[in-house]
Amino acid sequence: MPEQFDPALIQRGARLKRSPYFEATQRAGCLGYTVYNHMLLPIRYDGFESEYRRLLGEVTLWDVSVERNVEISGPDAMRLAQLLTPRDLANCPVGRGRYVILTDEAGGIVNDPVLLRIQENRFWLACADSDVLLWAKGVARGSGLDVTLRELDVAPLQVQGPRSREVVQALFGERVQGLGYYHFFRADLEGIPVIVTRTGWTGELGYEIYLLDPARGTELWNRVMEAGRPWNIAPTGPSDIRRIEAGILNYGIDMTLEDNPYQLGLERLVDLDKPDEFIGREALRRIAREGVRRKLAGVEIEGAPLDLNMTRWPVAGGGHVSSAVYSPRLAKNIGYAMLALARAAVGTRLEVQTCAGTRTATVVPMPFVDPSKSIAKSG
After folding, report:
1. pLDDT tens digits for range 8-40
2. Are 207 and 15 in contact (CB under 8 A)?
3. Shared-domain flag, residues 91 and 233
4. Alpha helices by DSSP H, the chain
5. Is 16 left (phi over 0), alpha (psi -120 to 50) or beta?
6. Beta-carbon neighbour count of residue 181 at 10 Å?
7. Of 250, 243, 255, 261, which is closest to residue 376 (Cα–Cα)?
8. Domain harbouring 73, CATH code
9. Residue among 280, 285, 287 nearest 105 (CA)
10. How far is CA 355 from the centre of its chain?
11. Are 97 and 231 contained in the same domain?
């Protein structure tokens, strides 16, 4: 049995929550945790590049219980959901999901959750690292809408990689075969209540299994690991290498409350003319009309391989690199840089102050791999 990571290295007291899978991650040899949504998030069990290669070639299991789910229910649930996001949800039926952004009155991004429409007047928001429940409660109180808001004690696991369909199908049968991208279904796995979604944070084929009974965490973990044994499943942490290749942004560093969707290339998530009111409409209309002064751009950074940046790296003349890492398949250092608009054009040369000294970088198109998302949408 591997030596267990000591949570006392990052936690004192009971303030930080542990997931229903915590004991299983310890037994599996988790080598480190970070804090995310007031919870412990496993970051790795092996080398980051080894886990990346396993994700590309086989199948991986991630504990992402830190994706805290805020539930909106009640007679005015749709109206509040529409008020929180500039994306029009009118065409999102029960049993489907959407990637959405939540915006404030200035058009700044509060969060970028995956929304699931559980029932006609019941929505779940699987949230990135910020206090969405408090924001939603404030909006609900100010709007006077008849809704109930709560943070659910549900716990997602991600099953990701090219063999993920075989694993999930071994657990839930043929209904997995026809499950569309951002679709989901409820299931009972020999008494374990779950929701199975066709979603993930990788750009690879993948699924999430939402555990609805937190007392069954270790049992569900073991069932997934057993089902995945023929395909060499292994637990990993979230892969920053793969998500940067895919152009997936990490809330809190690549996008914050100070950023609007037009700066981040997320204007596809904004419907300025949707019939229902939403927070930030006038600000976003003005930004769309006047344009932005800075833009998030893809960059390739020259030189020897770089590890994932632990701080923002300054760009000479203004701007910063928010995320950067070495991509083994591209044999390049790749990342995102927030730059003045005039410097964000493809081909622009930059000087970046990295952890390994000053490096030359070039602005390039992103995403770096599979821009059509054909891998994640496959089948």
Report:
1. 888 888 999 999 999 999 999 999 999 999 999
2. no
3. yes
4. 22-27, 48-57, 77-84, 132-143, 164-172, 217-228, 240-245, 281-290
5. beta
6. 15
7. 243
8. 3.30.1360.120
9. 280
10. 26
11. yes
What CATH number should be reported for the domain holding residue 352? 2.40.30.110
State whether 363 and 243 are in the same domain: no
- Token pair belonging to 288: 């769309």
On whether both 134 and 63 belong to a single domain, the answer is: yes
Per-residue confidence (pLDDT) for residue 8, from 0 to 100: 86
Tell me the torsion sign for CA atoms 80, 37, 257, 112.
negative
Residue 23: inside a domain: no
33 lies in some domain: no
218-272 residue pLDDT tens? 999 999 999 999 999 999 999 999 999 999 999 999 999 999 999 999 999 999 9
Q: Which residue range(s) make up the domain with 247?
A: 47-291
DSSP string covering 254-310, please? TB-TT--TTTTT-GGG--TT-SS--TTHHHHHHHHHH--SEEEEEEEE-SS--PPPS
**Domain final residue, candidates 254, 273, 291:** 291
Residues 244 and 173 in one domain: yes
Long-range contacts of 33-38 (CB under 8 A, 24+ apart): 33/5, 33/7, 34/10, 35/10, 36/66, 36/129, 37/66, 37/67, 37/68, 37/127, 37/128, 37/129, 37/130
pLDDT digits (tens, 9 = 90+) for 36-63: 999 999 999 999 999 999 999 999 999 9
Q: How confident is the model at residue 2 (pLDDT cuts 50, 70, 90)?
A: low
Band (pLDDT 50/70/90 cuts) for residue 119 is: very high
Residues 233 and 177 in one domain: yes
Q: Does 211 share its domain with 150?
A: yes
pLDDT tens digits, residue range 349-373? Answer: 999 999 999 999 999 999 999 999 9
Give me the sign of the Cα torsion angle 35, 36, 38, 43. negative
Q: Can you tell me the distance from the alpha carbon of 135 to that of 117, in angstroms, rounded to the nearest whole number?
A: 20
